[in-house]
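Bench log. Compound arrived from synthesis this morning; before running ITC I wanted a structural hypothesis for how pantoate sits in the protein. Inputs:
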Amino acid sequence: MRTCNNKAQLQATVQQYRQEGQTIAFVPTMGNLHQGHLDLVRKARKLCDLVIVSIFVNPLQFGPGEDLDAYPRTMAADKEKLFSEGVNLLYAPGVEDIYPDGMERQTVVSVPDLGDTLCGSSRPGHFDGVTTVVCKLLNIVQPDVAVFGEKDFQQLSIVRKMVSDLSMPVNIVGVATKRDEDGLALSSRNGYLTEEERRIAPLLHQTLTTCREAIACGFDNFLQLESHARMQLLQAGFEPDYFAVRDAQTLRAVTEDTAEVAILAAARLGNTRLIDNVRLSLNPVDDWRMLADG
Ligand code: PAF
């Protein structure tokens, strides 16, 4: 596995791959890799000849008082994992490679509407930081395909919208959330949880799936479902940020035209902010197909 720490090295290598006629799948990450990331890498390997992974803890997507400094940096262990997964190239730039003129002077890419709600409301500027860095990384790497996790469902929707609105020639692929046996979605931030918090944490996913079951059974008072779920989370010791039943396409309220519902939640447990989501197709044929496919 080759490692490039700057844009010039990376682009020279990518040019060589292109001359050889190889297709490229790209997995952007902030490192501290877990099985969820490795699932993205495995998907990427199936889709293209070569896989490029980036590790960059992007300061532009962290707000004041957030965990930028505490965010786990585990480059040596990450490299080993990527090597074992057969990754061809690691791009691990420094902040000055991505923001050579400083972050204040950086042109910002902002996706309206989708970025203003849910995590966008509670973390102002976060998604602008994400779309700006993802846009830059896609322009630097110029992959055929880029792979993102569905755990960050709002992020995935926003990236898809950016790529479509800016006519970027890349195919965005989402990969299902990887979970621990008790349902907790894998996340680099799970490492912040104390033993007691780790015991409570799976309740976030349980609350989401209970809500999904209620909707699947025909219960359609979403406000009641949301407030009941928030209450359950509060009682268990979470500080819920939002628990929302939304249209999976628009991330706005469910309407008569909604084909798929996304139930999304963010909640703080001690010092850790956890997010998760589940989805439900409102088209019974899709559910039947899913059952038939196992
Ligand atoms: O999901 C992440 O890890 C980050 O938001 C991403 C997409 C790598 C951009 O920094």
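What the model suggests: The pocket of pantoate is lined by residues 28-30, 58, 61, 130, 133-134, 152, 155 (CB under 6 Å). The chain has two domains: 2-175, 188-293.
ITC booked for Thursday regardless.
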